MFS transporter (Methylocella tundrae), 181 residues
Amino acid sequence: MPMSSITAAAPDLPTAASPVVTADRFLAGMRLFASGCAIVAARHGTDRAGLTATALCSVTADPPQLLVCVNRKVRAHALISDSRALSVNVLANSHEPVAKRFAGMVEGVAAEDRFLGSDWGTAITGAPILKDALFSFDCRVVETIPTSTHSLFLCTVVDAVVADPDATPLLYFNGRFAAVS
Ligand SMILES: Cc1cc2nc3c(=O)[nH]c(=O)nc-3n(C[C@H](O)[C@H](O)[C@H](O)COP(=O)(O)O)c2cc1C
């Protein structure tokens, strides 16, 4: 069959105007993607904010870079944009209450009060760093890529602290926090 016939026989290629799946089907699939959990935190001046995040991805090891995807509505977004820095604090299973706090799942906890009840220091970039995280990366934002609801922050890792390599990681799977069994 000539190439032009193959092209002509594929009229339903996805376009931005007609996505292939609905958001619900997309989310139903992504719920089954088990992820590690982290607190992404930032500071600008005296303001601190953080969020529980799973949308993190290693990009390259040389230079050490990762991608962090943050909804523009989230309070930490402005602080990351203004300070051009953030920390990624990967959580152990024992941190489930911290993960719930930074995901806004605990009623009546104001944004700054999310930092109460866990031990935070300051990284080289000035970002808040969780002292007993499984490991923490201190990052500088080198590029911000806007997409529909989120910003993709491409970051260079300037420091890494491994607090407890033997701890069990906290996972998120099918709408729930879970442990590796
Ligand atoms: C397991 C889990 C993973 C999440 N991952 C992300 C993420 O990667 N990026 C994001 O913008 N929000 C993510 N969220 C949502 C934020 O944690 C949540 O909206 C948080 O309350 C935002 O803080 P805010 O109240 O300051 O807006 C996640 C929530 C949960 C429970």
About this structure: The domain at 35-179 is CATH 2.30.110.10 (Pnp Oxidase; Chain A). The chain has a mean pLDDT of 90.
